[in-house]
Amino acid sequence: MPDAPLPVRDGLNPTRLRLPENCMSETVAEYLCARFPDDIARIEEKIDSGEVLAGDGTVISHTSPYVPRTFVFLYRDPPTEARVPFEIDILHRDDNLLVVDKPHFLPTTPRGSWVAETALVRLRRELDLPELTPAHRLDRLTAGVLVFTVRREARRAYQMLFDRRMVEKEYEAVAPAAPHLRFPLDVRSRIVKERGVLQAREVSGDVNAVTRIDVHEVRDERAWYRLLPRTGKTHQLRVHMNSTGIPIMGDPLYPHVYDVARDDYSSPLQLLARSIEFDDPITGRSTRFTSRRNLGAWDHSTP
To answer: Which of 11, 39, 175, 260 has the CB geometry, 3.0–4.6 Å to 121, for a possible disulfide?
Structure first.
């Protein structure tokens, strides 16, 4: 993919569009107006002001011809969003890394109707870090340790740690007790997540998801679990806990999908990214970051 010829603005990357084949539009402007019919006036204003660029940095005009398989970049106006009423705590900051303690309900990056109310955009704006990029991601409903790179030059080194599974991650969850199971328990399966389908699912085939589940403590019919993922498939921990018969408390997807209002913060998913540990690829030092948060469904004041 080509680098964007437009810089990050107000914490947001420009939108990148690849012009499809078999399109009847004669100009880029005609295509954009057809693609965004509810935003035609703003699209025309952006073209007039020179804010729509081709992948090579050429300014798109109203007469620029449509060329299939080329890229166009422009700034889209973000939707109006109510603030997610939880703060991001900073655990560590240096020239290469920003490590934060993400709250429940805040997405890592823009997606769907969450744009400004994401950890990435908030932090870019609040800390004036336009090159800030996540080295990995946490689900919107999961809280805990989240690692960002600060500079473009450092981005690849840290992202490769996660891609190559050279990072030790520890999670905690609260779920029903399972006296019939023997822990620690290794769960191995194949997980697939289809576009447009809310739930990920386990299917037959080669294993691509491995999780070790252990128990910190049991109180009556509830338990506090330690989860060690060896892989990083979408919803892996939630799927594996559910398939083991101990779905995580507060999960609106597993075992059953149920609607939760966007502004309903009453029942957070009881899943926390407790710590991340790795050998820093630039300094070589063994590094560990630990969340200061606790899961609300477990009373940590009780011995």
So the answer is: 11
